[in-house]
């Protein structure tokens, strides 16, 4: 990166998110031809000068393309923007960006304090009564739906790839712990039509999640409210922990994995899906970035495959298979 760009790096995300939030990428996606800054500003109800500068910045970031006709600039989406930044795209990442913009990034103002003290600042970021990440996020229905939307965005890109990596056809009944949005459960029953899934999550999350399934005659997905640290978990052939363990320290992970090992039937197992660091801890930028976000908000961390295997082995699981593609890794352990 050009050293000159460092001073602007914090602006890059905000430029991209602002354009998405205002609907720039959606307007251009729906248009059959490139549009001028004036036409985009009029269509979205913004100032012309403000939109002109935003569009030019997006061209500089290679989010938009621009061509000159009769001394006028005409703007269109790049393939990346059309696929991932337009809200109307099936693979849109807008909700994930919204979660980052509203919840994660403002908290980065506390990063220096977090690094000095070595512990999360969740109480000072939000309020003293908030004890953990999810209690902060789930205080309102809007927060729950925002998180559901972000998870849907993430699994739209990676869910099918992860599920297809491991042969789970022998497991008939699945329990998805903390799988409130239902996105992973939906993809699982599509991949394995003979399976059923129970989603086990906090009662307030389950209440909201059920609304997303109202009117659907899908009896293979059921819901049960509870706290998987405090309450008994439903019986299942396979327990899925998707983006769960990275939220907790090793002690809490061991508590949960040991509990699941005891709940497993012989031949049953647990599937852990997490952003994974490479063993040398020098690549995997996405996992390193996730680890910084976790440092600010939780007691958790991202781990290497060997660290995940050590936790599973210590809990009693055997025949551990590990798969790693793109951002996420999957580890399947059996009893």
Automatic annotation (TrEMBL):
Pfam families on file: Dimerisation, Methyltransf_2
PROSITE patterns xref list: SAM_OMT_II
Sorted UniProt keywords: Methyltransferase, S-adenosyl-L-methionine, Transferase
One example GO MF annotation: protein dimerization activity
Positions of the O-methyltransferase dimerisation domain: 5-86
SUPFAM superfamilies (UniProt xref): S-adenosyl-L-methionine-dependent methyltransferases (SSF53335), Winged helix' DNA-binding domain (SSF46785)
Keyword Transcription regulation tagged: no
Domain O-methyltransferase C-terminal per the UniProt entry, residue ranges: 108-318
Subunit structure: Homodimer.
Protein name stated in the entry: Acetylserotonin O-methyltransferase
Annotated source species: Anolis carolinensis (Green anole)
Designated gene of the protein: LOC100567799
